[in-house]
Every structure is written in C-alpha cells, then in structure tokens.
Specification:
By secondary structure, this protein is of the alpha+beta class. Helices cover about 25% and strands about 25% of the residues.
Length: about 160
C-alpha cells in the first residue's frame, strides 16, 4: 500500500489587490448574476470568461423545474464562447454568486460538471485557464482547473 497526498496551490487576494484586468473580470461576473434565472434555489451565479484576444463573454445559471437540465453559469459562458469564438482560447474565468441576502461572503467553487468542462477547454487549446473564485472581498485564484480536479478524466484516460 502507498499513501499519497494531493495538494493544490491557491493565492488569496482581496479585491483591491487584483490586477485591473482581473478586477474587471470579477466585476463582469458579478454583473452577470443579474441575468440568472433561479426561481427554485434563489442562488444566482455569474461567470465571465476572457478570451486570448481580450473578448469577455458572460454566463449566468439557468434553472429548470427538471433540475437535470439546469445550466450552470460557468458552462453557459464557456459554451457561448466556444460556439461563437472557436478559434480563440479561454485564458481566464471569474465566478461570482449571490443569494437573497446579497453576494456570498466566501468564494464558491465550480461543480464537478463545470470543472470537467473547463478541463476539456484547457486540453483542447493546450493551455491553462486562470480561475478566479469571488467572495465579497476575498478572491481565490488558481492557475489551472487541475488544482480543483487533480485526478481528472481526459482524452488520454481512454487510451
């Protein structure tokens, strides 16, 4: 038997410490929460992805009474970007959330399906995507989704 420890690195920023382009992406993700359709959970999630040419695409969660067809904000933004700009890699994604009381204090993390979708885009373009998870003032920054999905399933897993 072998015991293995898996660790992930993250950098914790306060909003004001972020680079201007990252603050802008966080602001757009927060604004995108206003486009959420979440009549069941009342949990509004917004995402903003930046493409390699600087274009920013928004996404917001869209709930459905049949919960399995609900679309998360992250995948909404990613699939929009891939459908309209398939020749451009995604370089960053910022994710923000609010409930009926306002923006959540602590950063929220993508669900497993969204993590897998982000990983697929990293694999497709052969480059990492910077992840910004937004709380009210604290932002968790990861250099790649691999930090949140260390034992991942990718194309090579099927070979």
């Amino acid at each position: 038997m072998e015991h293995v420890t898996i660790k992930s690195d993250l950098i914790i920023f306060h909003y004001g410490e972020l680079a201007e382009e990252d603050r802008m992406l966080v602001d757009i993700a927060r604004e995108a929460t206003a486009n959420s359709y979440s009549p069941y959970s009342h949990f509004c999630v917004g995402a903003a992805v930046r493409l390699e040419d600087g274009t920013v695409i928004r996404g917001a969660n869209q709930e459905n009474a049949a919960f399995s067809v609900t679309m998360c904000a992250e995948r909404s933004a990613i699939f929009n970007a891939q459908s309209n700009y398939p020749h451009l890699a995604i370089t960053h994604i910022a994710i923000a959330a609010k409930n009926i009381d306002g923006f959540v204090k602590n950063p929220v993390s993508p669900c497993g399906s969204c993590r897998q979708a982000i990983l697929e885009i990293e694999q497709r373009y052969g480059r990492d995507i910077k992840i910004l998870l937004c709380g009210v003032d604290v932002i968790y920054v990861f250099d790649s989704i691999k930090a949140l999905l260390p034992l991942s399933f990718v194309d090579d897993s099927m070979r």
